[in-house]
Amino acid sequence: MNQPDFKLKEKNYGGVANFYCSKPSRAYVVEVGLSHDIKGDILQEAVNATLRRMPYCADALVEKNGDFYYAENPLPFEVAETEQLRRVGGAETNWHCLDVTYWNDTAWFSMFHGFCDGLGLNLFIEATLYNYFCIRDGKKYAAEGIRTPDSPVLPGEELDPFAKEYELPEGYKIDFFGEKYLHLPEIDERPLDYMYGVPVQVKEDAFMRFVKENKSTPVAMLHVLLANAVQSVHPDNAQTVGALVPASYRRHLNAENTFKNCSGALRLPYRIAEMSGLPFEEQAQRSRALLKQANDENLARFFTNAMGGALRKVSSAIPNYAGRLPYLDFKKNSNNETYMIDYVGSLKAGEYGREIVRTKYMATNTENHFSTVTLYISATGGFFHFEIVRAFESSAYVDAFLEQLSRHGIAYACEPESRYVTPQNGLITDLGLL
Predict the structure, then answer these.
(1) Residue 382 domain-assigned (yes or no)
(2) d(CA 68, CA 215)
(3) Is residue 63 in a domain?
(4) What is the pLDDT of residues 66-106, one digit of tens each?
(5) Over the stretch 99-126, which tens digit does the pLDDT of each residue have?
(6) Same domain? 292 vs 226
(7) Strands across the sheet with 67-72, in order?
(8) Residue 131 pLDDT > 90
(9) For residue range 391-429, what is the model confidence (pLDDT) as tens digits?
(10) Least packed by Cβ within 10 Å: which of 148, 192, 205, 387?
(11) Quick check: is 35 in a domain?
(12) Hey, how many other C-beta atoms are within 10 angstroms of the C-beta on 32?
């Protein structure tokens, strides 16, 4: 399919892991439920206002000699009233790599992960919701931290941190996958073609009080709860239960304001021999200390150098997409952690935040080399929203996690289990690269 002749901007380095895949990656989607039916004309006006402040969110991606570039995209960014998610990044969305659809009281914000990361998408969502409620209510809400139409452009909003090489201590090395983690047996089954998602809601103040009483942090605490849940399903397990924790590198790379990909991963172990028999509070504290140790500036620089360096190396040697694929398909050799914990954070909102009743982060990992149990976490409107996602039939780990919440006196509301699959991105397929 022919792509329009867009005006090229800078090369994309941060999206390398999402461009070069043997199968097209799928969209990353945030579902936002409101307390009322959405007015489509106002939502479109809100998106237009967001793009006037952040025009880079309307960019396209263009492939040239195997490299991908951001490009100015003057085609309309059209909100659609539909329950069907669209193939983002390609012709169906006018080559926009972000997309907005809605139906009744629910909006979906989709992205191609090669374009930006989850925090970058959150910036777009926050601004759009702010504009929507300001327009709908005819007033200007408080907006701390939101990129409103009249807020100044910040330094480095379009910075690609992977485009440069960072200094490291002499001889710095790391064996990231040196410690082997428990591999859930269900992952070896043929994965489903869809995901099961179980939404769980916990009051934010109550959960944070529990976390602070145990001198921990939300991610470290949830890791302990999940590890204990896994152990209750596999009581004879003696192997380390380990979490893969996506993490923003913005602070480490002086890229606090970028919307582009600036994330990597931390490995967080729960070593059975060390943790068994310890009081719960000490488990939570040890988990917090391990997480802090893992979130290291040199680790962030090491992985940024590795990803950007791999692209720089093949760019000069192999000037085409097909030739690069075997060398840059990082996901093909992904190791399974026991599970993944993805804490995107809170959607910033003013008084209107009370009308945001649900946030749900949706990704599709149906390949058996991916971790197929994921706990997505967000906080909006006074609640933590947990989404426990898996690609196999058994609900044993969900049930065990909920039992852990009950055991520790954490009240929760659990919605019915849903099935979903997010669409393949439209860019790679529409360009005819796969």
Answers:
(1) yes
(2) 45
(3) yes
(4) 999 999 999 999 999 999 999 999 999 999 999 999 999 99
(5) 999 999 999 999 999 999 999 999 999 9
(6) yes
(7) 7-11, 67-72, 60-64
(8) yes
(9) 999 999 999 999 999 999 999 999 999 999 999 889 999
(10) 205
(11) yes
(12) 22
- Between CA 196 and CA 362 the distance in angstroms is 10
How many domains is the chain partitioned into structurally? 2
DSSP state of 219: H
Q: Are residues 124 and 206 in the same domain?
A: no
Q: Which of 32, 31, 39, 29 is nearest to 133 (CA)?
A: 39
**Whole domain around residue 408: which residue ranges?**
185-420
Does one domain contain both 228 and 282?
yes
State the Cα–Cα distance between residues 374 and 355, nearest whole angstrom. Answer: 27
Distance between CA 258 and CA 251 in Å, rounded?
11
Tokens of 429: 């397929």
Domain with residue 271: its CATH number is 3.30.559.30
Residue 45 burial by CB count (10 A; 0-12/13-18/19+): exposed, middle or buried?
A: middle
Give the least confident one: 295-309, 334-348, 416-430.
334-348
| Same domain? 130 vs 236 | no
pLDDT above 80 for 186: yes
55-81 b/e with 16+ CB inside 10 Å = b?
ebbbbbbbbeebbbbbbebeeebebbe
Strands (E), 231-318: 241-248, 263-270
The C-alpha atoms of residue 85 and residue 193 are separated, in whole angstroms, by: 16
Quick one: tokens of 338?
Answer: 């026991």
Enter the tokens of residue 10: 């800078």
In a domain, 145, yes or no: no
* 110, 52: one domain: yes
| Distance between CA atoms of residues 47 and 149, nearest Å | 11
Using CB atoms within 10 Å of the CB of residue 145, give its burial: 0 to 12 exposed, 13 to 18 middle, 19+ buried. exposed
